[in-house]
Amino acid sequence: MKKTLKRLFNKTKWYNLRSLAPVSSVFGLDRGIPIDRIYIEDFLANNAKFITGTVLEIAENTYSKKYGINVENYEVLHTSSENSAATIIGDLTDINTLPECKVDCFICTQTLNFIYDFKKAIQGGWYILKLKGIMLSTVSGISQISMYDMERWGDYWRFTTISIKKSFEEVFGNGNVEVDFYGNVLSAISFLEGISSEELTKNELFYKDKNYPVTIVIKALKR
Fold this sequence. Notes:
By secondary structure, this protein is an alpha/beta fold. It is built from eight helices and seven strands.
């Protein structure tokens, strides 16, 4: 009875959200900047002091150049030599293809979701870091499937803060991993709908509700 009364007196206002099709099926790229990009860049900006020395990224060095401080070498990891930006040809899940103790900082954004054996990829990240090196990583919590990635190499995982922290601690050790998140029910719904970040206020974007982690961020130290 109470639930019936709640539905009657607190009716859901659907507006244009009662639709089987999203506002945008490409994460809002056709409307502006995707919400998860704002979260990723805020995380990197807040940790810019660690993006120094020899810095590694996957496929390109955009974030290294944007947020790096006193970067001496820009390294780019890719599985294929067809990527002209690649300085390291290797597979993150196979340490035999990776140089050991090469980089001071490894920026690994939105990558582990698309690697089936993501735990081996975390091991690869640890292996390629110098002692006291930092891995700055982001993963999806609440997100639609990326068909671009699904059709090429696969879209396998969505994480929680506890699942990704335990996975990193298995490699980096307890006390060496910090995990945080961005997201709330509004930004999660907006991201799933493909509503762009420009369509939310700053307070709406950055309000945190642990029940709705859109983007999870990890800082891991190699000791």
